[in-house]
């Protein structure tokens, strides 16, 4: 249960890095219907679990060698720092998507549109892989424990997106404040940089 909670908390923190898929889903629920928003949430959750599974399977094989573990720990930590920098850089940028034309013909269309939008992002698997590499090293998780951690992280998507759809369907009928999104991305970016930096120093000092 503790491992699941750790995965859930990690996943919820990452969910605050709101991106285009989030806006796409919210616009579905506002412009089409509440049910369209829910099936869209199921779609993005399914993709996340797919990528999480691939990431865990890859991590399990790569972490068999101690030298490899240290190298991957360093690479994973640096990658987290880079992701954090990218998020903070976007804080002052104007490339955040705030509007999306949504025209699915039915619930299946809503599901497929979000599924394809999410799975087409090649950075997702890289991001999850780095997260699991760092966590596996930090807590010495076995592959089975990584699966539990991954289940918690994936459930965070369902929980966060589901609650968001419910709230926005009830109270939001206009544009989402861009300032709120930028601040959330800034916070998550900072957390990733700090976390990646601490892990880098710890892994770097470890002996083979």
Describe this structure as you would to a colleague:
With 208 residues, this protein is an all-alpha fold. It has one domain (2-205). It is built from eight helices and no strands. The protein has helices spanning 2-15, 20-31, 34-62, 66-89, 107-119, 123-139, 143-171, 178-205. Helix 1 crosses helix 7 (143-171) and helix 3 crosses helix 6. The longest helix is centred in the first third of the chain and has 29 residues, at 34-62. It is globular. The chain starts with a helix and ends with a helix. Residues 94-104 have low confidence and may be disordered.
What's the N-to-C terminus distance? 31 Å
Helical content band: over 70%
Shape label: globular
Query: How many whole angstroms does the radius of gyration measure?
Result: 18 Å
Report the β-strand fraction as a percent range.
under 5%
What structural class is derived from the secondary structure elements? mainly alpha
Q: Provide the low-confidence segments as ranges.
A: 94-104
Number of helices: 8
Mean pLDDT over the residues: 76
* Overall structural domain count: 1
| Tally of strands | 0
The largest sheet, given as strand count, sense and whether it forms a barrel, is:
none
Strand/helix succession: HHHHHHHH
